[in-house]
Amino acid sequence: MRDTARPAEAVRSVEGWGIHPPPAPEAIPRYMTPDGTPTPRRPRRRPGRPPSLDRTAALDATWRVIANRGLDRTRYQDIAEESGVAVSTLQHTFGRLDEILAAGLRRAEELDTAFLDDLPTGDDATAWERITAFVLGTLAVPLPSGPAVETNMASWLVWVERWRAAARENDAAERLQATYDRWWATVEQIITDGQRDGSFSSELPAREIAIAINAVLDGVATNILLRHGGGKLPDAQRVALLATQRLLGVDANGTRVEPAAP
């Protein structure tokens, strides 16, 4: 039988690679280590929002930029600079620019309606104290501050942008109307309570008074915005309260005033 044994020197290991010389580093496959063992593969990131992103903070930054620049002039880059989050991360999370803008408006809307939940109730305050809290608070809704907007009228700047969007888009119009309905209903309930317990002398329907009070607030707030800071919030609040007193039939102290005889 033919002897098939190989010479010892032919099978001598050369740095662990058998009879072959070790390959150059650039020849080693990416999935192997120099000693020939497979390298562990990195786990692929599952699709979805990056875990480090604070979605609420990003949306707060979005509405602040909208308040400062307006919907038409807001860019992804502006939102990235305000939020400190990369454009690519924002796009990965929110999609197109119009989608993050819409989400930013919804976030401001949530903050506005959350203010209504914090108003005093009939168990804690009189009807006049409740309506006063609504009037004063509405003109200075506390929203998260930031570099883009440092004014307590920021919510009204966004409100104007919502008006603009509602004039052109059905969905925006429906959302704005839903917000108004919520505000009107809140005020209507306070007025109804005040009329029932005799605090207010006005006999006008509570719903109509509620709409009128909200219209006054829209007017004085818009006046401040159009004057580019020339108007003052305390003046706007004083005018709004004066109009509210007349509509409800009370004096400056909230005391019922009987209507003058015809």
Compile the SSE list and pairings.
Blueprint: H1 55-69, H2 76-83, H3 87-94, H4 97-117, H5 127-138, H6 154-166, H7 170-196, H8 206-226, H9 233-248
Descriptive overview:
By secondary structure, the protein is mostly helical. It has a domain at 110-248: Orthogonal Bundle (Tetracycline Repressor, domain 2), CATH 1.10.357. The chain is 54% helix and 0% strand. It contains nine helices and no strands. It has helices at 55-69, 76-83, 87-94, 97-117, 127-138, 154-166, 170-196, 206-226, 233-248. Helix 6 packs across helix 7 (170-196). It starts with 54 loop residues before the first helix and ends in a 14-residue tail after the last helix. The model is unreliable at 8-20 (pLDDT under 50).
